[in-house]
Write a structure and sequence with these properties.
459 residues; single chain; disordered N terminus; seven-stranded antiparallel β-sheet; alpha+beta; rod-shaped; 19% strand
Length: 459
């Protein structure tokens, strides 16, 4: 009877298995099959030969195929099989131990994963429960409220101060006890103190700058206030006097106390066409360098038709139709002076008088040029265009009075009598009347004129 053994597959995992071991294992299975066949009824006869059994398909031949092996020594073969079986047992035991350890590890990992999953679920539940609530500020950010910001900054500074005090106390205790104070703490304390000193210095400098700016602004405001008060006092005094010192319509003066481009006087009347003129005035100025422009007359197309100007360190100049003549006059001493200038279109002849005395003469100044009519007379400013565009650098600073113009050349005796206050001659073209003169700009005033003797140079 032929015995069919089912096909089996064996898997052994061992790093110590080798080719010789596998070969021995093969022989072991062969011998096990032979022993099994020996105990069957159909294989009772032992003829001393060795057979090998192998699995064959069910549809194949039912006869027991055997293969004869050469006779070998039974003692050596049994020993070899015994060693192979022992190795197999050891391998199986090692694999069981490995599997046991892996099972323990798998159980531990499974437990940890279960815990992680439960923790994750709990967190999800907590997040779901807390959804919709106000988010807390857990990062220590500064609040948006300025009051909270200041309060937190104050707390921070106080905390820093406390830490510094603690470090100082630690250092003192370390110095007393002789124990070494940590170098890192000492360096940190030093750096922090230096940083605080720099911040304090910057703050002090900012405060000093603000204080300086505030002081300057206060001084400027105080000066402006004092000037305004002085102007008000003078104005009130003038109103209280009620023009009592105006003994006659010509007994007044205009005052231009500052060199600006907005303080000036204007004569309402204009000039006719003239072929000669005499210009006289009382003038008082101590401005340097140059008294500026006490008189200017401009017409359309020619802003410098008649100009009396002193700028820089140059002498007083007379401009007629932009032609220039330098006059030997000096009125910078801060006292009243009477000046007169005469001119005629014939040969451009001119003469200059100061305090009744002729100081110089000349000719060829805009010869044969008639003075054009219809212009604007400005006192205290030089006109770049008719009636305007003034330059503060050419402004007159001082006082003017009795500005008169004639359309002829006055006799020297008439000029001397006006300078000596023995007579007063009003101009036949422009006469000095309060109703004919306007003042412009804050600080420019009409004021009563002093007595004639007080205006004389020798007084």
């Amino acid at each position: 009877m032929r015995r069919v053994f089912p096909r089996k597959s064996y898997s052994f995992i061992s790093s110590k298995a080798s080719f010789a071991g596998m070969f021995s294992l093969f022989y072991g299975f062969v011998m096990l099959c032979a022993l099994g066949c020996r105990h069957q009824a159909s294989c009772q006869v032992d003829d001393g030969k060795r057979y090998i059994c192998r699995a064959v398909p069910l549809v194949g031949d039912t006869s027991c195929p055997v293969t004869l092996l050469p006779e070998i020594s039974s003692g050596g073969q049994e020993e070899e099989l015994r060693n192979t079986v022992m190795q197999l047992r050891e391998t199986i035991l090692m694999q069981k131990e490995t599997i046991s350890r892996q099972l323990v590890t798998i159980n531990e990992l499974t437990t940890k994963l279960s815990l992680c999953a439960s923790t994750t679920d709990d967190r999800k539940y907590e997040k779901g429960a807390l959804r919709g609530k106000v988010k807390q500020n857990t990062m220590g950010d500064v609040p948006r409220d300025p009051n909270d910001t200041v309060e937190n900054l104050g707390k921070t500074m106080q905390g820093l101060k406390d830490r510094l005090e603690n470090l100082e106390q630690q250092q003192m205790r370390a110095n007393i006890s002789g124990a070494p104070f940590p170098t890192e703490l000492r360096d940190l304390l030093q750096r922090r103190l230096v940083e605080l000193e720099k911040q304090l210095l910057r703050k002090v400098n900012n405060l000093e700058e603000e204080k300086s700016m505030l002081t300057n602004a206060t001084a400027e405001y105080q000066l402006k206030t004092e000037n305004t008060l002085n102007e008000l006092v003078e104005r009130i005094s003038e109103l209280e006097k009620g023009g009592e010192d105006f003994k006659s319509p010509e007994q007044f003066k205009i005052s231009l106390p500052q060199r600006t481009n907005y303080l000036y006087g204007r004569i309402i009347k204009s000039l006719p066409e003239m072929y000669a003129f005499t210009l006289c005035m009382w003038i008082k100025s101590r401005a340097t360098p140059g008294i500026g422009t006490p008189f200017s007359y401009g017409v359309p197309g020619q802003a410098n038709e008649i100009v009396l100007i002193e700028w820089g360190n140059n002498p007083i100049e007379l401009l007629i139709n932009d032609k220039v003549a330098q006059l030997p006059l000096d009125v910078r001493d801060g006292r009243w002076h009477h000046i007169c200038i005469t001119w005629t279109t014939r040969d451009g002849q001119w003469e200059a008088y100061q305090d009744g005395e002729k100081q110089g003469t000349g000719d060829n100044l805009a010869a044969w040029h008639p003075i054009k009519p219809g212009g604007v007379i400005i006192l205290g400013q030089e006109q770049d265009v008719v009636g305007g565009r003034f330059d503060a650098g050419q402004a007159f600073v001082g006082e003017l009075s009795q500005v008169n113009i004639w359309d002829r050349v006055l006799k020297p005796a008439d000029i001397q009598s006006m300078a000596n206050c023995t007579s007063y001659l009003p101009g036949n073209v422009i006469s000095w009347l309060a109703a004919n003169v306007e003042v412009f700009g804050r600080g420019a005033f009409k004021r009563p004129l002093e007595m004639c003797q007080e205006r004389l140079p020798n007084n």
